[in-house]
Amino acid sequence: xxxxxxxxxxxxxxxxxxxxxxxxxxxxxxxxxxxxxxxxxxxxxxxxxxxxxxxxxxxxxxxxxxxxxxxxxxxxxxxxxxxxxxxxxxxxxxxxxxxxxxxxxxxxxxxxxxxxxxxxxxxxxxxxxxxxxxxxxxxxxxxxxxxxxxxxxxxxxxxxxxxxxxxxxxxxxxxxxxxxxxxxxxxxxxxxxxxxxxxxxxxxxxxxxxxxxxxxxxxxxxxxxxxxxxxxxxxxxxxxxxxxxxxxxxxxxxxxxxxxxxxxxxxxxxxxxxxxxxxxxxxxxxxxxxxxxxxxxxxxxxxxxxxxxxxxxxxxxxxxxxxxxxxxxxxxxxxxxxxxxxxxxxxxxxxxxxxxxxxxxxxxxxxxxxxxxxxxxxxxxxxxxxxxxxxxxxxxxxxxxxxxxxxxxxxxxxxxxxxxxxxxxxxxxxxxxxxxxxxxxxxxxxxxxxxxxxxxxxxxxx
Length: 462
What we know:
- This protein is globular.
- It is built from ten helices and 24 strands.
- The protein has helices spanning 15-23, 36-47, 143-146, 159-162, 209-216, 224-231, 246-259, 372-376, 426-433, 441-452, and strands at residues 50-54, 62-64, 71-73, 80-88, 91-99, 104-113, 116-125, 133-136, 139-141, 169-176, 186-193, 204-208, 263-267, 275-277, 281-284, 290-298, 307-314, 318-327, 330-339, 347-350, 353-355, 383-390, 400-407, 421-424.
- The relative contact order is 0.17.
- Residues 34-232, 247-450 form the dTDP-4-dehydro-6-deoxy-alpha-D-glucopyranose 2,3-dehydratase domain.
């Protein structure tokens, strides 16, 4: 006689409510919210890290391969900088791109204190951060890092994420990273709840989601990896209605992916057209978009004390913005099915606007990207959220974008969205962000802001 089956609930009860309670708790039990920036600044000063630009010839253990000319590490680990050839019906280009096939871990530990979920956040130095130290996940490590390919120290708290108790996992999803700079890069985004005593190291603090919300309102405090993990958490309850049903939304997005033809081919770095290389950088002839440079990091206070590496540096700040409207009492944002050369699945859902304005300044209004001028010229009384956040500081140098949520109207963003765009609710976007390769990393930052309550959307017109 076979053993009786035992069914379990399809989802853990109360997670959304517990996250909402944490978001509504502005003070935690371990550090006052007002002291968090100062705590980060202390670690910034304490680590004494110096970042210095160097010529490629001074890279230690990095070199251009004799045959391909690609830039890689002598261990064969970490990442390589290669060439990418992208062909679309309306455009064709070649560019450098970071190839990092290994999957990293971005993990945040959660624990209840006084009945409220707190999250273990790290004051982590990354060489590309404009202010070096930002609020980061508990664990933020590539496989090369946590298998100690660099010969450094153990990654703290890693054991909670490598083989977690499935009953304690709040979220676990593979997510893409920047499709313009990474080739098919993915990271495992996780939140794992723990019980009992957890050792607290000096560079870590337990914060409520409400405290993290306050930090999201400040410039360059919460790093990209923390933002993407929080966006994957089931924070948004489903709305009672939407302009499109979930099935219609999926059908639209599947159609968008299917209609875009794109062919990508990795190629030797020295052969890419339209780019030039000297001893200090690889850059476009017209000096647009980004360049590849090299840096030396000294006194890092991390798993290893110092190292050198190549890094991507954008030529100017970006802008990432959602148009936001309320239809019949239900908030919606306007997403863009954006194609980028590094995506695995052709397109992902992006913000309404995701551009570096300097790259399009020479174009007249008719040929500039849709909605870009609308966001650049948004009236202050329409802006519901505005902060500058840096992108991934381990691979990108001073890569900052102004993140905006802007209330719009029928005249500027009609309910009948133009081709390539679609109105979705935050709940729908959160549902999709719980799955791989639907919502891109920049839109996930804005989703974390929406779901956590960091945006001032309480007085939007209905």
